[in-house]
Design goal:
There is one protein chain. With 134 residues, the protein is mainly alpha-helical. Helices cover 75% and strands 0% of the residues. Helix 3 packs antiparallel against helix 4. The radius of gyration is 17 Å and the shape is elongated. The termini are far apart.
């Protein structure tokens, strides 16, 4: 067993473990519209209910697609990019609305991408996370 075999095994395991973490974050995002709705009730902001429903439909549909690719089709590399892009897109859409300023995608998703130990993945996700704000 050579050094490259160990590195390959480590990277495969790492991709799988980080994908699980990203999936958990993505699953947690399904509660974001409900949290924003509670902010409406508390008077923190005023976001139209139909907008929150559209965001919920977008989050749920992207989650189902990504979960299918991750669990059913066993495509970890595709799931890696799709999960990070979907999370960044959802946060960017909410921030672009202008009603709630969310700048977390500047740093959190590039940080998660760096955990994959892939320069290419980190660069792509970093550029993509800044794209909506340009």
């Amino acid at each position: 067993m050579g050094k490259s075999d160990i590195d390959e095994e480590f990277l495969k395991r790492n991709i799988s473990q980080i994908n699980v973490k990203v999936q958990f974050i993505y699953l947690s995002m399904n509660f974001l519209p409900a949290a924003l709705f509670l902010g409406n009730i508390a008077g923190a902001w005023k976001i139209p209910i139909n907008y929150l429903v559209k965001i919920q439909v977008l989050i749920t549909s992207l989650y189902i697609i990504n979960y299918s690719i991750f669990r059913l089709f066993r495509k970890p590399n595709l799931s890696k990019y799709l999960g990070l892009f979907a999370c960044t897109t959802i946060i960017s859409i909410i921030a672009a609305n202008g009603r709630v300023g969310i700048y977390i995608s500047y740093g959190i998703f590039p940080f998660l991408a760096s955990l994959y130990f892939s320069k290419r993945c980190t660069t792509i996700v970093s550029l993509y996370s800044w794209l909506p704000y340009i």
